[in-house]
Design goal:
single chain; mainly alpha; Serine Threonine Protein Phosphatase 5, Tetratricopeptide repeat; 165 residues; 78% helix; 2 domains
């Protein structure tokens, strides 16, 4: 773990390889090996390791979220959305997960579903400037320009420290 924190992805991968060899069912080792692989630029291996971590431990929210983000980055929005939805089911109280799901839905063109997720994020965390901004983008795409303008203003105010906490 120290090697990874110091930026030595290759050394970290070698250490996680040893951990997986000793305990192939240790989901956290696959997760960390996956993160190190992604950081080193080995997207395929990183995603496979994250997938393995989720397969070994289906309630591993962090692994699902990082897998979803990697899938989204690779353009596999359908699978990313599935992973985000599973993460939301496991921890529905995390505003950030609803926001991430909303972004993937918005990218997929599912604007009304994205709006619903951004609003859920804001219900959980009203001062979440990023979710206000993302909601504004979705509202704008849906033609709700006045509501979008209000959300853009809320996001701006929160970023400048003028909004409610």
């Amino acid at each position: 773990m120290v090697l990874w924190q110091e930026g030595d992805s290759k050394g970290a991968i070698e250490e996680w390889d040893k951990a997986v060899a000793l305990a192939p069912d240790y989901a956290e080792a696959h997760y960390n090996r996956g993160l190190a692989g992604l950081r080193a630029g080995d997207i395929h291996r990183g995603m496979q390791e994250l997938h393995d971590a989720v397969a070994l431990k289906p309630n591993y929210v962090e692994a699902r979220l990082n897998l979803a983000l990697a899938l989204q980055h690779q353009g596999d929005l359908g699978t990313a959305i599935h992973q985000f939805k599973e993460a939301v089911k496991l921890q529905p109280e995390f505003a950030e997960t609803h926001n991430d799901l909303g972004l993937a839905l918005l990218e997929q063109g599912e604007i009304q579903e994205a709006i619903k997720e951004f609003r859920q994020a804001l219900q959980l965390k009203p001062s979440y400037a990023e979710a206000h901004y993302n909601l504004a983008l979705a509202l704008q795409r849906s033609g709700q320009t006045d509501a979008a303008a209000a959300e853009f203003q809320r996001a701006r105010d929160l970023n400048q420290g003028h909004g409610p906490n």
